[in-house]
């Protein structure tokens, strides 16, 4: 196997110190000069290691200020299942970005245009846990029920989308998901407020929700920070 560059060795040592709690959240991170002395390394070598830690979301960048860099708190992980607020309770919140009835097919993402009938309700939220944006959700609900009353309820703070659908006579019972793990695009980094030049992976999820008769009730396009969730599956081996 090829040998690591020295900056990678420094990066792994510092990363382990953060994960093991030797460098604690919000603690001042060592200066480049301190790291150069400790590891007997050049400034550029140390900076490469620090940039990688910043990209991983482990260290706050000081930017062009004179402030010291600090260790970023590690986000907690949770299982990804159904409704976000119901799963995470008091340390979570869902921020509504847009709730709108769509009448034109060009407003529907091309990948799901063949599955959504118009008009459709568009429900766009940011999901936060411990004040960190961990997911972005864009749901499209076809006109299986009157959409205007549904829209009014979903505009309420922390509305539960599945319970709201049930209150209108729908019965969301089954879920199908497709997942793609990737590095975030610039627009995804911006929306998730991830560190600049972040290397934190994200998971793009297409969730389809059906009633017991197999009728499509909702298509949700989500982008989740992969370092904030665990994905657990069970399926038959046949």
From TrEMBL:
GO MF, one example: DNA-binding transcription factor activity
Alphabetized UniProt keyword annotations: DNA-binding, Transcription, Transcription regulation
Presence of keyword Transcription: yes
Annotated transmembrane regions: none
PROSITE patterns to which the protein is assigned, alphabetical: HTH_GNTR
A Pfam family annotated for this UniProt entry: GntR
Domain HTH gntR-type: 4-74
InterPro entries: Bact_HTH_transcr_reg, Chorismate_lyase_/UTRA_dom_sf, Tscrpt_reg_HTH_GntR, UTRA, WH-like_DNA-bd_sf, WH_DNA-bd_sf
GO biological-process terms attached to the record: negative regulation of DNA-templated transcription
Protein name stated in the entry: GntR family transcriptional regulator
Source organism per UniProt: Paenactinomyces guangxiensis
Source species taxonomy: Bacteria, Bacillati, Bacillota, Bacilli, Bacillales
């Amino acid at each position: 196997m090829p040998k690591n560059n020295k900056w990678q060795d420094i990066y792994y040592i510092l990363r382990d110190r953060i994960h093991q709690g030797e460098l604690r959240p919000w603690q001042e991170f060592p200066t480049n000069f301190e790291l150069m002395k400790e590891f007997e390394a050049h400034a550029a070598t140390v900076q490469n290691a620090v940039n990688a830690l910043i990209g991983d979301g482990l260290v706050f960048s000081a930017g062009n200020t004179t402030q010291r860099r600090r260790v970023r708190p590690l986000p907690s992980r949770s299982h990804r299942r159904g409704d976000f607020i119901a799963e995470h309770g008091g340390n979570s919140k869902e921020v509504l970005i847009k709730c709108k009835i769509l009448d034109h097919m060009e407003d529907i993402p091309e990948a799901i245009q063949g599955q959504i009938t118009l008009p459709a309700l568009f429900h766009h939220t940011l999901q936060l846990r411990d004040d960190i944006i961990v997911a972005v959700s864009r749901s499209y609900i076809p006109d299986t029920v009157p959409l205007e009353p549904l829209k009014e309820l979903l505009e309420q703070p922390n509305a539960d989308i599945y319970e709201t659908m049930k209150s209108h006579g729908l019965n969301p019972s089954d879920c199908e998901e497709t997942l793609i793990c990737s590095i975030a695009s610039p627009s995804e980094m911006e929306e998730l407020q991830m560190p600049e030049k972040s290397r934190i992976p994200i998971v793009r999820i297409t969730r389809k929700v059906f009633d017991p008769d197999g009728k499509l009730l909702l298509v949700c396009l989500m982008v989740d920070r992969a370092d904030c969730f665990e994905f657990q599956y069970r399926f038959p081996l046949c």
